Recover the amino acids of this structure.
């Protein structure tokens, strides 16, 4: 990347970082995806019980390999085979030491915005694990909550519906059906069983200072 553009990008990320800190979240800057693993490692202790939400950003940073290293008690959701085991893994996340996820969007005033279908991810962000580590590429930064809504409806949910093979309007057309009508609300969308936008979490100033740690990467990651 052009060095001048990179410098401006870093300045924007660091402004968002200051806003996150004002909202009682910790902030870490990673120059590239390859720098994320070391930061995540520094935020966990050997023997910690660790799990995560579904996250393309996390996978792109090699975090699953770190969790599988044997240093941690890794609650690996991919090992669950029956609906009962999957449900048990999701519930165990509430008493984990560390939960790792990404964010659908981060506003310039330091607010995390996440939309979920199954909603185990947003539940664990809001309550349960002692520590929540959020890994987000530069592309997740938006001006405000309105941009965050649009980002989910155009850039996050459609590729996730393709990835998860959910039969939705956005999987077929590339954008949320709510964008085809004027005056739609945040919660407007499709009505089929495959819908992945069901619960909406806005994480503003936190009561538990430092529980949420946000790593913003100077590269595009995830959706
Ligand atoms: S509400 Fe439905 S169509 Fe709209 S973004 Fe979510 S899954 Fe896609």
């Amino acid at each position: 990347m052009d060095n001048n553009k990179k410098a401006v990008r870093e300045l924007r990320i660091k402004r968002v970082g200051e806003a996150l800190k004002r909202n009682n979240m910790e902030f870490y800057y990673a120059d590239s995806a390859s720098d994320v693993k070391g930061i995540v490692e520094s935020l966990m202790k050997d023997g910690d019980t660790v799990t995560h939400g579904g996250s393309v950003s996390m996978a792109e940073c090699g975090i699953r390999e770190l969790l599988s290293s044997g240093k941690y008690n890794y609650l690996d959701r991919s090992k669950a085979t029956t609906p009962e085991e999957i449900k048990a893994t999701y519930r165990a996340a509430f008493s984990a030491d560390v939960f790792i996820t990404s964010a659908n969007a981060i506003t310039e005033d330091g607010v995390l915005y996440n939309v979920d279908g199954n909603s185990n991810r947003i539940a664990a962000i809001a309550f349960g694990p002692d520590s929540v580590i959020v890994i987000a590429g530069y592309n997740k930064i938006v001006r405000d909550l309105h941009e965050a809504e649009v980002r989910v409806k155009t850039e996050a949910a459609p590729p996730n519906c393709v990835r998860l093979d959910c039969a939705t309007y956005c999987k077929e057309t590339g954008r949320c059906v709510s964008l085809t009508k004027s005056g739609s609300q945040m919660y407007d969308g499709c009505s089929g069983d495959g819908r992945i936008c069901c619960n909406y979490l806005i994480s503003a100033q936190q009561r538990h200072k430092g529980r949420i740690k946000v790593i913003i990467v100077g590269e595009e990651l995830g959706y």
Notes: Residues 153, 157, 161, 168-170, 176-178, 189-190, 195-197 surround iron/sulfur cluster (CB under 6 Å). The chain has a mean pLDDT of 96. The domain at 3-106+117-137+206-217 is CATH 3.40.50 (Rossmann fold). The radius of gyration is 17 Å.
